[in-house]
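Box S2. Input/output pair 1.
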Amino acid sequence: MAFPLGLRLYLFATARRARPGGQEPAGRADRPSGPLIWMPLAGGIPPSLPQLIGHLQEAPGATRSTPEVLVTLPGDASPSLPPDVLVASAPPQSLPDIRRFLDRWRPDLVVLTGDCLPAALIHEARRAGIAVQWIDAAPPRAGHPKRFPGVLRALLQSLSLIVARDRESARALRRLGASDSRIEIAGAPHEEPIVLPYVEAEREAMAALLRARPIWLAAGLPEAEENLVLEAHRAALRKAHRLLLIAVPHDPARAEALRAKMEIAQGWSVACRSSDEEPDEEVQAYIADTEGEMGLWYRLAPISYMGGSLTSGARRSPLEAAALGSAIVHGPEHGPHGATFVRLAEARATRPILSSPELGRAVAELIAPDRAAALSHNAWEASTAGAEATDRLAAMIAAALPQPAADNAGDEADADTAAAGPGRGAPTEREAP
C-alpha cells in the first residue's frame, strides 16, 4: 500500500519538530542474539507491563527461544521493571533517528501501547519489514491532525495486529480505517493479584488466639488518618464489642505515638507486635509494626481499609487484599493505584467511603460474613480476569515472532509466505465483532 500524501506531509512536519540526534541505550551495548521485542512507551509504564513481560517470556509461541524485551522511555524516566528487561532512552521521532535505532537493534517485533500511534516509527518499521502490533488499543485521542488527510487510516492499515481493549474500541477503530482481519479482542491486561507471603503455622496460631473475633485491618495507615481510623473503630465497637482493629502504620516508627493515642485518648487496651505482645480477648487494638508480615494480616482480617485513601492517597495496592480474601474498603484518594481501584469498583468488589463515620458504618456492616465474602469474591474474580487477558495477549504477541530455522526446515515456503504478509506471524482466532 502506497503512503498517501497526507502521511508524507505529516511525517515531514513532525520531523521538523523532532530533536536531532539521540542517546545510546543504557545498559547492555550489544543486541541479544535471540528474538527481540521492542516496546516503545510514550508515557508512564502501565501497571500491567511487568506481568505482560513475564507472561511473554513464558508464553508457548512460535519460538522456543525466550524473547528479550527492549523498553524505551522518554526523557529521564526511571522505570520499575524486571531486571532482565533492556531499557533505553526513546529515539527522537524523526525518520533518520528511528532508522538508526532500528538498524542498531534489529527488533523482530514492535509492540505499541497507549493511545498514540508514532507515525515515523510505524513508517520506518514497515520499510524495514518489521511487524508492528498495537495492544490495549482504543481510538487515539491526540495527534494525527485532520489537516493531514488519510494519516490515521494509513497508520492503522500498516499495523500487523491490533488488540482492542473491548468491542466498542474495536468497532471505533474499524470506522477509522483499521482492517477487520487484523483486529482482535483479548480483553484489557491488568495488574495481577499480589499474593504476599505468610507463614501458615503463624496464621493458625494467631487465629486460635483470636477465637473467631471479628477483625478489621487498617493497612498502610498514615499519621494524618490515625484519628479518623480510631473514630471509626470506636463507632464500630458499639455494634460489635469484641471487634479487633489491627493497625499497620505506614511508618513503623509511629507505633509508640499511635499506642499512646489509643490508650490515653480512647481508653483502649492495646498490644504491639514488635513488643511480642498478643491480642488477647481484652485487647481492642493491635499495632502490627513489624516488617514483612502484611500477608499474615490480610489473611487474618476479613475487612481491610486501604490506608491513605481518605487523605493523600492509598499507600498499598488493593490487589494485596484481594489476593488473600480480605474485603476492601477505601476512600476517594487512590494514589498510584487509581486504575486498579476503578476496575474493582466497577466489578462491585470494594466498599467506597468518603468519611470516618462512613468507614465506621462500613466496618460494622461488613462484619456480617456473607457481606464481606461477597466483596472478596468479586475482587478475586475481577483481579484474576486481568491475568487471563494477559495470557491471551502474550500468546498473540509470541505467535508473531520468527520460528527457529532448525524447527522449520521443512516449512520454508510457509515461512516465506508469512514474511511477505503484514506481520511475521498469524494472529490467533479472532473474536467476532
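Box S3. Input/output pair 2.
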Amino acid sequence: MDIFIIGDIHGCFYTFKKLLNKLDKDNEILVQVGDLIDRGKNTPQTVHLARNLKQKHPNNVIFLKGNHEFEFIQHIEKAPNLHWVNHCGEETLYQYKLNNRNIKNDMDWFKEMPLFWENSDLFISHAGIAKEAANPFEESSNLSVIWNRNQLKNLNKLQIIGHTPCKEPMYDEVSNSWNIDTGAAYQGYGYLTGVKVKSNGTIIEFLKEKTDVKDII
C-alpha cells in the first residue's frame, strides 16, 4: 500500500477534514507526524476526529507522538507544565473546558502513540533521527525524535518529519529527508501539507490545504 503522510495539524480541525478527503482508505496507510494539538482553534475536535479514524481503521491509520502531546501529558500527570501552559496550553485547556471533553482520556491515548513508523525504505517521525543522538527514543531528550532540531542522520532510507515550521516542504539532500510542517496554525502564510509516498520511498505527490479561517485563533 502507498502511504499518505500528513504534517503538523495543531488543532486545525476543518483544514484536516478537507485534506482527509484526499485519502484513499482502501489503498493507502495514513500516518500523521504528531502535534495534533495546540495553537489552532479546535484541538478537542481534532483529537476526536483522529481517534475515530484510528478506531475505524486500526491497522491503516497511525498518529505519531509529537512534542506537544508529550508536553500535554506532562501537564496532566505532573502539573503544572508552565512552559506548555504559557506557550499554548492555556488556550488548549480552555478549549477542552468549552467542549466538555475528557482531557484525561485523551491524555491516555496520547501516551499510547508510537514515536515512529517505518518500513525498509521509509522512516517517519515527528522530528527525525538526529545525527549525534545517542538514544533518539528517549522522549525527554532534546535530540529525541519528538524534539530534535539538529542535522538528521542519513538512515539509507527516506525520512519524513515535521516539528520545525517552514513556508514550504523542505528537502535535505545530506540526510535524504523531507520536512512537511508548513505551519498550519499560523495566520497569513500557514497551510497543511500532505505527501503521498510509495512503499519504496518514492514520492508520488505533495498536497497543500490552505488553513481554514475557522481554525485560526
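Caption for Box S3: The chain has a mean pLDDT of 97. The chain has one domain: 2-215.
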